[in-house]
Design brief:
Layout: H1 4-7, E1 10-17, H2 46-58, H3 63-70, E2 79-87, E3 92-100, E4 106-111, H4 116-124, E5 130-133, E6 136-139, H5 140-161, E7 164-166, E8 172-174, E9 181-187, H6 189-203, H7 211-214, E10 215-221, H8 229-239, E11 243-248, E12 269-273, E13 281-284, H9 292-300, H10 303-308, H11 324-336
Parallel strand pairs: 4-9, 9-10, 10-11, 11-12
Antiparallel strand pairs: 1-2, 2-3, 3-4, 5-6, 7-8, 12-13
Length: 337
């Protein structure tokens, strides 16, 4: 039985293709970015991280805004398909985008995050409960959000591998090439969904998509922990060298879910920055779990107070540091310094 037939209270599927920019970028044009087809690699690349940060940030908008933005970032003529499902009864608010390059050879599967002001509440309430996933345990809320749109996501990936883009109305439009390299990305909740999606593709059952070869990298920004130590170990063995987590300053979300009776752990390489004028630096220890008290103190500290006294983060954490603009600014600086 399809997931959509049992859980979708409100579902949207839309597409948009931006053929060319209307003019030069409004912002600083000095960041050099070649076409994304020329960047395809499974090694960490600061230019790819910048493009992924743009997509993860603009995933909070709609498909037209995202596609129109990408013409200035090496993805002119991007084909963008959005699938959104909302079911308040199940606490599901899930959105995924498949961005395909003009040729179709490179794709980006992006998941939308949630309102930064509410993410800590989501991670600290009963939805921090876990459910089984491939013999391990993962966050029940993350699982429910990915599950709600999963059939649609795999349909889009299968079409991409068959040299197709699913356009408005569900029409399949032929492309020049089949999907050869897929990047997965997201900020906040979107980052957690990105990790879970990559894990699901690599767990088995999708050999026709050849995920082990096709997935070029998983770039996440301000991502919380997704599952227990067993899940983290599976991810490490399956795609750990391709998982690049970014953490800005004292962002509280990478330290969540908070300490509890449930086991949670990070996986993949962590890159950190101490300010928007500091590049991403690798080799950092994985963010540890915050206590619930420290996390809530960090959230209660308002954005205004943090700007008046930016080093006085209550509990040692900050929700202001979680804003996607911070991750975008650091990623831009890392390319342009």
């Amino acid at each position: 039985m399809s997931t959509s037939s049992t859980t979708d209270a409100d579902k949207v599927a839309r597409s948009f293709t931006a053929t060319r920019p209307r003019g030069p970028s409004f912002g600083d044009p000095s960041v050099p970015l070649p076409p994304i087809d020329d960047l395809a690699t499974d090694a960490y690349d600061a230019r790819l991280a910048y493009v992924m940060s743009v997509i993860a940030t603009w995933a909070y908008a709609d498909e037209k805004a995202l596609a129109s933005k990408l013409v200035h970032y090496g993805i002119e003529g991007a084909h963008v398909r959005r699938v959104s499902v909302r079911n308040d009864a199940l606490l599901v608010v899930a959105t995924a985008y498949l961005v395909q390059s003009r040729s179709g050879r490179v794709g980006v599967l992006a998941f939308r995050g949630t309102d930064p002001a509410s993410v800590v509440t989501i991670l600290s309430d009963a939805e921090a409960m876990q459910r089984p996933f491939g013999g391990h345990m993962v966050h029940a809320g993350f699982f429910a959000n990915v599950e709600a749109i999963w059939d649609d996501v795999t349909d889009l990936l299968e079409a991409a591998r068959a040299k197709r883009h699913v356009a408005e109305g569900g029409e399949h439009v032929p492309l020049a090439g089949r999907l050869e390299t897929l990047y997965v990305t997201g900020h906040s909740l979107g980052g957690a969904m990105a990790v879970l999606a990559a894990a699901r593709l690599l767990r088995g059952g999708y050999e026709g998509l050849d995920p082990q070869k096709v997935i070029g990298g998983v770039y996440t920004f301000g991502q919380p922990m997704v599952g227990d130590s067993g899940f983290a170990s599976f991810c490490e063995s399956a795609f750990g060298r391709k998982l690049f987590r970014h953490v800005y300053r004292s962002d509280v979300v990478p330290h969540l879910p908070p300490k509890s009776r449930f086991d949670y752990a990070h996986t993949g390489g962590e890159r950190r920055s101490a300010g928007v004028d500091r590049p991403w630096a690798g080799g950092s220890e994985a963010s540890g779990r915050a206590s619930l008290t420290a996390a809530l103190l960090g959230v209660s500290y308002s954005a205004l107070e943090s700007r008046l006294a930016p080093k006085a983060h209550l509990g040692g954490y900050s929700i202001d540091d979680h804003m996607p603009a911070n991750y975008l600014d650091v990623s831009r600086f890392s390319v342009n310094r």
